Amino acid sequence: MDYKEEQVQEIEILESIYPDELERISDTEFTISLLLETASERKHRLILHVTYPETYPEVVPNLKVSVDDSFDDQEDNESDDEESSGGEQVVRLENEIFFSSDDLKKLEFRLIDEAYDNIGIPSIFSLTSTLKEAAETLFQEKLSKATKEHEEELLKIEREEQKKFRGTPVTIESFNAWRSRFRKELGLDEKLKKRLEELHKGKLTGKQIFEQGLAGGDDVDEVTESIAQLKTEES
């Protein structure tokens, strides 16, 4: 096999497929810039750096994946111009997704595995297509994870806010405890005891006390007011 001829022919084919994306560094080294199709308004580009070993395609090519930083810088400058001109910026999760160094390593390993499966034939176009597809899938996975975490955080905040407006349920025990404390603070039991003593001194019968509204009329009002006040405090 004429390795040099195989390499030259593959680069020529790649240049016809990627006329603007491929940058030749030498006869055995070049890069291909790939624009990913994502949901993000921020455009993401990856660069596949390829170097041919002397006996390629009988051996695996040297591959490196990186982020196109120059493209990011250009977008940042455009964003700064919009902000300085008074444009309102809305933060969207898909615009906050980026590829980490671990992500790039994961993509490289994926390409190397496929390159071993294609030993003996020119494989850069196939590897380039695999990189684009794998990167777009990885982006969507990262976005789905970020969306889930964001929704969980919003739900947590919502629950905390709801606690501020959620009163403690009133039970018989809690009402009786509050009623005892309330009556003690206002001295209602002492007043009732004194009133009963005064009534007994007047020698009124129980029926007379009831008919005259002297036995508990005020207490009923007090309890009614107490319940209303308890609900107000507990809420």
TrEMBL record:
Pfam family membership, one: DFRP_C
Please name the source species: Komagataella pastoris (Yeast)
Q: Which domain of life is it from?
A: Eukaryota
Q: InterPro entries annotated for this entry?
A: GIR2-like, RWD_dom, UBQ-conjugating_enzyme/RWD, ZC3H15/TMA46_C
- RWD domain residues are 9-138
Give the compositionally biased regions (Acidic residues). 69-85
Gene name as annotated: GIR2
Chain spans, region Disordered: 69-88
Classification via SUPFAM superfamilies:
UBC-like (SSF54495)
The name this protein carries in UniProt is: BA75_01586T0
